[in-house]
């Protein structure tokens, strides 16, 4: 609980930065189009009921809504949710944002969503399998789930923590805890335990110099996957 509150406080403190394209979440804005394209490659978004778990200020949620999805975004950081709601006045999109724990959401709305997205979140929680179990519960039969996170390798520590946070300073210091990074084999095992079958896993290559992001076969640092219920 103490760890969870620490993570919530961390993102509350940065809530005002969510829609600053050159701010603390610049990298999320830069990788967002690639994440969105990966989702579009595997799911029909128009009229689909989609939930974005750990939605933050709404970067991905708004992109999903622009594709015609009926989007719900949930997050435990109240200031991030307020930022997401306020940005709807600029984007004129219709998104249902809730400051609610995923377990409570899954209890109230089981088997309600065609698509679940959970991006760059699992490495910030105490028990990722609880998140995965509730994502599975939220999904309708034959639903599709998308997860992205950081692999636990020397390269991800060197580039994702040391270089990104302390040398290039492209993300805030203390954003990541290397011990919480998850190997693809570990994530696949957790998904399989919760009756989610992985159909594709890809690497997310990010060049911090020019901000270019691409999908690749290299999962050494960031990776994204799709799983079916």
Explain what you see.
The protein is an alpha/beta fold and 229 residues long. The protein is 41% helix and 24% strand. The protein contains eight helices and eight strands, in the order ααβαβαβαβαβααβββ. It has helices at residues 2-13, 26-42, 59-66, 78-91, 102-108, 128-138, 154-167, 184-193; strands at 49-53, 70-74, 95-98, 113-119, 139-150, 197-207, 212-216, 222-228. An eight-stranded mixed beta sheet has the order 3-2-1-4-5-8-6-7. The longest helix is centred in the first third of the chain and has 17 residues, at 26-42. It is globular. It starts with a helix and ends with a strand.
Q: Distance N terminus to C terminus?
A: 29 Å
User: Which residue ranges are poorly predicted, with pLDDT under 50 across at least 5 consecutive positions?
Assistant: none
Task: Calculate Rg over CA atoms.
Answer: 16 Å
Strand content: 15-25%
Shape from CA axes? globular
Number of strands: 8
Query: Structural class of the helices, strands and pairings?
Result: alpha/beta
Order of helices and strands: HHEHEHEHEHEHHEEE
Q: Mind describing the biggest β-sheet?
A: 8 strands, mixed
Helix content: 40-55%
- Average pLDDT score: 88
Number of helices: 8
State the strand order across the main sheet. Answer: 3-2-1-4-5-8-6-7
Work out the oligomeric state of the chains in this entry.
single chain
């Amino acid at each position: 609980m103490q760890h969870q509150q620490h993570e919530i406080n961390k993102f509350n403190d940065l809530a005002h930065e969510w829609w600053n394209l050159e701010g603390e979440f610049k990298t999320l804005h830069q990788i967002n189009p690639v994440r969105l394209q990966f989702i579009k490659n595997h799911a029909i978004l128009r009229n689909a009921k989609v939930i974005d778990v750990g939605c933050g200020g709404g970067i991905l949620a708004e992109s999903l809504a622009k594709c015609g999805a009926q989007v719900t975004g949930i997050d435990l950081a109240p200031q991030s949710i307020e930022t997401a709601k306020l940005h709807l006045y600029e984007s004129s999109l219709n998104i249902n944002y809730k400051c609610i724990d995923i377990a409570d959401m899954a209890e109230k709305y089981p088997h309600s969503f065609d698509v679940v997205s959970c991006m760059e979140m699992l490495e910030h929680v105490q028990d990722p399998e609880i998140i995965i179990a509730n994502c599975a519960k939220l999904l309708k039969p034959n639903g599709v789930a998308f997860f992205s996170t950081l692999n636990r390798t020397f390269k991800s520590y060197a580039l994702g923590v040391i270089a990104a946070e302390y040398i290039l300073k492209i993300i805030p210091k203390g954003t990541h805890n290397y011990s919480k990074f998850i190997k693809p084999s570990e994530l696949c095992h957790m998904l399989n335990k919760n009756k989610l079958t992985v159909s594709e896993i890809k690497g997310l290559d990010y060049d911090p110099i020019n901000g270019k992001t691409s999908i690749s076969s290299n999962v050494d640092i960031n990776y994204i996957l799709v799983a079916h219920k």
